[in-house]
Design brief:
This protein is an all-alpha fold. The protein is built from six helices and no strands.
Length: 176
C-alpha cells in the first residue's frame, strides 16, 4: 500500500470515528432532553404538596435541571439547530465514506435494502465502514461481496419464530 492509499485509509478511519462520536453525542443529548421533559411532565402532574419545604426543594431541583441542560428557549433552539447540523454533517461524511468503499451497484442494492429494512442496512454499513477503518477493504466492495456479507449477517441473525395458539373456550360451550 503506497503512502496515498494509507493517507486515504487513515482519513476514512478518522471520519468514521468522528461520525460515531457525533451520533453517540446526539443520542445522549436526545436522551437528556427526553429525561428533562419527562421530569417537567411529572412535576406538573403531581398535586401540590402542603409542605412548603418540599415544594421549595422541588422548585430548586427543577431549576437545577433546567440550568444544567440549557433549557432556556433560545439556547435550547440553538443547541437543537447545532445538533441537527452536526447530525447532517456526520451523515454526509458517512455517505461519502460509503461511496468511496462501495461500488455503484453495491450502493444501489444497499439503498434498496434501506427502503425495506433501514436497521439492517445501517448495520451492514457499519460493518463495511468498520472493516474499511481496520484496513481490511483493499478495493471497492462489489455487489457480489455485499450479497455474501448480507448472507453471513442473515445466518447470524436468523430469528426463531414460535407461534403459540391459545384457544379460548366459548361461554356457550359445555364441559359436561
Amino acid at each position: 500500500m503506497d503512502r496515498g492509499q494509507r493517507d486515504r485509509v487513515l482519513e476514512t478511519q478518522i471520519l468514521l470515528v468522528i461520525t460515531q462520536l457525533s451520533s453517540s453525542l446526539s443520542f445522549f443529548t436526545e436522551r437528556v432532553h427526553r429525561f428533562c421533559s419527562s421530569e417537567k411532565q411529572i412535576a406538573q402532574t403531581l398535586p401540590s404538596m402542603a409542605d412548603p419545604e418540599l415544594e421549595a426543594i422541588r422548585k430548586r431541583r427543577m431549576q437545577e435541571l433546567m440550568a444544567q441542560h440549557g433549557m432556556g428557549s433560545q439556547q435550547n433552539s440553538e443547541q437543537q439547530n447545532a445538533q441537527e447540523e452536526a447530525k447532517r454533517e456526520a451523515e454526509e461524511r458517512r455517505q461519502m465514506m460509503l461511496s468511496q468503499v462501495l461500488s455503484s451497484e453495491a450502493r444501489e442494492r444497499l439503498a434498496r435494502i434501506a427502503l425495506v429494512k433501514p436497521e439492517k442496512a445501517r448495520g451492514v454499513e457499519d460493518v463495511i465502514l468498520r472493516s474499511a477503518q481496520m484496513g481490511q477493504v483493499v478495493e471497492k466492495v462489489s455487489e457480489e461481496r455485499l450479497i455474501s456479507l448480507l448472507e453471513q449477517i442473515n445466518t447470524q441473525t436468523t430469528k426463531q419464530t414460535k407461534v403459540t395458539i391459545q384457544r379460548r373456550r366459548s361461554v356457550l360451550e359445555d364441559d359436561d
